[in-house]
Amino acid sequence: MKRKREILLSGGATLLAIPLALLMAQQFAPAADHLDPPPRTDPAMDATPDIPADIADVYTWHTPTSVIVALTFAGPQATSVPASYDRDVLYTINIANGPNKFVPTIPIKIRFGQDSARGSNQFGVQVTGLPGVTGGTITGPVETNLTRDGVTLRAGLFDDPFFFDLQGFRSSRSTGTLSFSPTRNFFANQNLTAIVIEIPRDRIANGTNPIGIWGTTARFGGQL
Q1: How far apart are the first and last CA of the chain?
Q2: Looking at residue 18, what is its pLDDT?
Q3: Contact, 214 vs 107, CB < 8 A?
């Protein structure tokens, strides 16, 4: 069984609903998650689904001094499945701290690559657009904490942090009676790939403006 690393939702963690004006605009927006869009990522609709480009969730939480964003994708998968590092997918964490919460002012872009000189299993990550980082870029190996100019990030395999009772959801839909159980978690003991970034809070704050944060993926040939 492949070792899993947990994403610890600490420091007042809230999933995309932090009430502080600093972090999230209190508006609803169109969003995609696991197996969305189905024609590209759902194996029931495509025999060769684009798993690496399939966003799972975006988490945002904070400490008194930092904002942490986690973009998860390519999951859930069995613990025997390795992390997904596709060099042809561009991952973007979009941060909007201006008046329009749908226009990113700090787009943070993530790409993966393979070090051919060190063997087929040696992967690295490059993150650009990081505020306050010299050159805006951090590059280094995956499964490693990378720190530069006050920003820390890690890309790698994690235990899927999303908790959901899929059995209860399906039963509720079919019977019309709420059947959720707080002890059933469909995502338990499953993995996914994630990029987690911790940024000093004052680098993305813009006065009292609410801040919008969302994730996107793009592959050569079209947006997902």
Answers
A1: 31
A2: 33
A3: no
Average predicted confidence (pLDDT) for the chain: 84
Cα distances from 215 to residues 90, 107, 147, 186, 193, in angstroms, run 11, 9, 22, 23, 14
pTM higher than 0.70, yes or no? yes
Pair of tokens at residue 23: 């972090």
Q: How confident is the model at residue 34 (pLDDT cuts 50, 70, 90)?
A: confident
C-beta neighbour count of 110 within 10 angstroms = 21
Lowest mean pLDDT among 17-21, 93-97, 99-103, 162-166: 17-21
Q: What is the 3-state secondary structure (H, E, C) of 153-178?
A: EEEEEEECCCCCCHHHHHHHHHHCCC
Query: Which tokens sit at 180?
Result: 């959720």
Structure tokens at 99: 């008046």
Quote the percentage of the chain above a pLDDT of 70. 81
92 and 108 Cβ atoms separated by less than 8 Å? yes
Burial of 167 (0-12, 13-18, 19+ CB in 10 A): middle
Cα 112 to its chain centre, rounded Å, is 14
Burial class (CB in 10 A: 0-12, 13-18, 19+), 206: middle
Tally the residues of the chain. 224
d(CA 56, CA 36): 9
- The separation between CA 117 and the C-alpha centre of its own chain, rounded to angstroms, equals 29
Q: Using DSSP, state whether 201 is helix, strand or coil.
A: helix
